[in-house]
Amino acid sequence: MAGKWVRMVTAQTPTNIAVIKYWGKRDETLILPVNDSISVTLDPAHLCTTTTVAVSPSFDQDRMWLNGKEISLAGGRFQSCLKEIRSRACDVEDEEKGIKIAKKDWENLHLHIASYNNFPTAAGLASSAAGFACLVFALAKLMNAKEDQSQLSAIARQGSGSACRSLYGGFVKWIMGKDEDGRDSLAVQLADEKHWDDLVIIIAVVSSRQKETSSTSGMRETVETSLLLKHRAKEVVPKRIVQMEEAIKNRDFASFAQLTCSDSNQFHAVCLDTSPPIFYMNDTSHRIISAVEKWNRSEGVPQVAYTFDAGPNAVMIARDRKAASLLLRRLLFHFPPNADTDLNSYIIGDKSILQDAGIQGKEDVDALPPPSEIKDNIPSHKFRGDVSYFICTRPGRGPVLLSDKSQALLNPETGLPK
Ligand code: DP6
Known about the structure:
- By secondary structure, the protein is α+β, with helices and mostly antiparallel strands.
- Helix content is about 30%, strand content about 20%.
- The protein has 2 domains: about 190 residues, Ribosomal Protein S5, domain 2; about 190 residues, GHMP kinase, C-terminal domain (Alpha-Beta Plaits, 2-Layer Sandwich).
- Helix 5 runs antiparallel to helix 6.
- The protein binds ligand DP6.
- Ligand DP6 binds next to helix 4.
- InterPro entries: GHMP_kinase_C_sf, Mev_decarb, Mev_diP_decarb, MVD-like_N, Mvd1_C, Ribosomal_Su5_D2-typ_SF, Ribsml_uS5_D2-typ_fold_subgr.
- Pfam families: MDD_C (PF18376), MVD-like_N (PF22700).
- This is Diphosphomevalonate decarboxylase.
């Protein structure tokens, strides 16, 4: 095991958006939830974390860099994940490099970890979910751990609850489990990303000045003070989980949308039922809800579902490309870009939806007519600048290894960030 070699692995892991929300823990340290939850994995082409993990006998401590900046690994959640995954490490042999690491060596070897989000960490887009999932997945590969994705999800869960759902693509359920040690609180895949590939997702990153309550402390306060949460966890969510699984299986968009919107609204109601109340949505979020509700109602059948996590950003799931392009026209009508923002940086991700919407440049945005469902309600207000940008994406795949060495975030000779 002596020598100056560095062995490393790079992985890419998606983020996910819950359509039946996780909110509330029954065990804070193990991160065990009070109810099951269901999520859609988002296409990593637009939202993902890339992580390189390296091991070398020359490293003298575990170190981590996030988006190029060194961060501390001292926190309990990092330590739990590292401890759990180290205990599952196996023999590793790399004949090409002449490296042999025995199972027992792993406890004395140190790690370097570099992680990078392809989206702004501060935008409030579940960066910890993709981050912990990627860390655990990459380390499992580096250490030749034999655990399957579900077993790995139970480790990622100990980094951040929602992270366990990022170990799979498509549609994922986090089963709350019953065991006290948390071994049965893990994620399973309900359907892969090809199962329902009509869906198109548009995320409105909403401008906000306010620092939000973190999910961790917010849900702690809810568990301590909200009676509505008890009713939700015991009576409401179990039924919704069954209905949501059915809706996903049958690609029943009407049920999917109704359940998704209701569950988001109930999650925010539970936040409001917390003492002191927690406000995650703002006026822009509420305007987006109203616009979607009005349009869905006027169409008779739902075209779009919306859901909001612990912040003001809206995640909208459109039934198909046609609905997504009509949604984008509506969103751009209500929330046009600022004068100094060009369209190319205002709509990011899969820009082809913009073509479908018949919008080539900013002049087309200015010429958009009011949506037919609001034409009678003159005047229709515009809220320029209230959305920072939109991300167009779709359901996506689970974690992958990146074999292309040029994508590694650590230098193969030194094990330090490139
Ligand atoms: C509103 O997974 O961020 O996004 O387990 O304390 O790290 P911790 O919380 P986190 O909470 C996510 C809450 C949510 C809903 C969801 O993703 O299900």
